[in-house]
Amino acid sequence: MKAEFDRFDQTYEAELDDAIGFAGQEHGFYVDAKARRLLELARRRLGGTRELRFLDVGCGVGLTDARLLPEVGELHGVDVSAGMVERARAANPSGRYEVYDGAHLPFGDGELDVAFAICVLHHVAVAERRPLVAEMARVTKRDGLVAVFEHNPLNPLTRRVVRNCAFDEDVTLIGRGELERLFRAAGLRVADSEYLLFFPWRADALERRLTRLPLGAQYVVAGRPAT
Asked: At what angle do helices 126-138 and 176-185 cross, to 10 degrees?
């Protein structure tokens, strides 16, 4: 995965926009939607976010972090690509970023309030997915939250985006039910499981009514460490 993303550290946004351009929105629209949903989930389960420590696993160039930083107490990001981490640091000087090995998160047990990964897991080898989710659970407080956003393989437009995206070559998508099972196997109790991004325009109130329909372009599963 490191070599894959090192190739795109300077062209990530352009490659992304090229893949999703047919839908009429640039990448910022989708980044904003997921940042809003993550903050909503954190507020729903943990209360306010301004005192919380967040970890972005597979942070890339820090696009989501730019939206989160004004709303959270502290934000860390890790990625296997040094080039991506360098760009994230430059874009978000108040964030704290480091390169990691893709297996062991550089944090102690229960050190963070929220650990999240956005469209990362489908790049991870199938056998390594549960260990990664378990690592996210390990570094999260008992009363914290783990959230994973992924592409919805049931959505044909999503599959088109993945087919056309240069850095999604040969990936294996993961369905919501499978991700929920990974959460449970990693010691997490599923608290929220929702579809999102039904429309290529902002319609938050309507989307909240549709979260159970498997038609959204992406979905999120959020869980809390089992007690």
From this structure: 50
The answer to whether 166 touches 219, Cβ cutoff 8 Å, is no
pLDDT tens digits, one per residue of 118-167: 999 999 999 999 999 999 999 999 999 999 999 999 999 899 888 877 76
* 118 touches 149 (CB < 8 A): yes
- Decide if 82 contacts 54 (C-beta within 8 A): no
Neighbouring residues of 15: CB distance < 8 A, sequence distance ≥ 6: 8, 165, 166, 167
Kindly state the helix (H) or strand (E) to which residue 61 belongs, with its residue range.
none
CA 201 to CA 179: how far, in whole Å?
Answer: 27
Locate 29 and state its tokens.
């629209």
Class of domain 2-225: alpha beta
Look at the block and give the residue holding tokens 């989930």.
Answer: 41
Per-domain boundaries in the chain = 2-225
Query: Which residues, in sequence order, are CB contacts of 207 under 8 Å at separation 6+?
Result: 196, 197, 198, 199, 216
> 167-205, pLDDT tens digit by residue?
678 899 999 999 999 999 999 999 999 999 998 878 888
| Total H helices, total E strands in the chain | 9, 7
Dihedral angle of Cα 135, 136, 142, 145, to the nearest 10 degrees: -170
